[in-house]
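User: My collaborator sent over this chain with a note saying "see what the structure looks like." That's all I know about it. Can you take a look?
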Amino acid sequence: MATAAQVSTFIQTIAPLVQKYCKKYGYHVASPIIAQACCESAYGTSWISKAPYWNLFGMKCGGSWTGRSVSARTKEEYTVGTLTSIVDNFRAYDSLEEGVEGYFKFISWSRYANLKTATTPQQYLEYIKQDGYATSSTYVNTNMSIVNTYNLTKYDDFTVDAQAAAPAPVQQPVFKATGTAKTTANLRMRAGAGTSFNTLLVVNKGCTVEVDGTVVNGWYHCKYGNTVGYMSGNYLKNVQTTSSTPAATRTHKVVKGDTLSQIAKKYGTTVNAIVLANKSKYPKITANYIVVGWELVV
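Assistant: Without extra context I'll predict from the sequence alone. Here is the result:
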């Protein structure tokens, strides 16, 4: 099962490519196609959706396919409520982007011509189910649930770049090493303090990383090689600092006139990072709403 971080990363990766080819091939909605990729590839975690196959949409070879292929077991619902296990040949591509464009070439067949008239995700999914793309009796509802859960309709506005709709990358505070720590597992270094942030690299078990004394919700601000990010304190041991005080959570008490923008600039971080770090304690916090007296983790 995909983690929240994997889901977020997959959607942010796939959305701009789907938008690109929707515009190139003349389709009006990207959200149901993004949902299909999420559904068919288990958010990019299935083996066939990764290198060297890059089949993100579960497309079989059919009689006209002349490219690479791979054999896989799958389940079809030819009769409602009854799953039949079969082995079939699936298309293989040379890159993630080729896999995405491959979907659009696949639906260019005349049987899918009605998809170009769909103007809502519901309509698109109903059409593609009727056209025979999938046998699952719950295919439309499953994909609409994905559309609604992750607010994918925001990608149907092709005037808005999908990259702009994704969360802004977290700007790291200036790093000044005050000590070291050892990893107790193969540990991800992330762009922010939490699993919702993108992975910058994976540090192997038993490696030594530098720390600077900054701790946000149990995540240490660390440096490994030339990369700076956050690592979970649950998998760090022998945290040693050369400073006179132990590592502590850095906070800022909101006073009259403060804005998150000013606070972020003062501490070398971002508004988005502060909001995420404090959401559990202050559920009402937004980029434009803070309250005098709040003790914010920065």
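A starting point for your reply to your collaborator: Residues 4-25 form the longest helix (22 residues).
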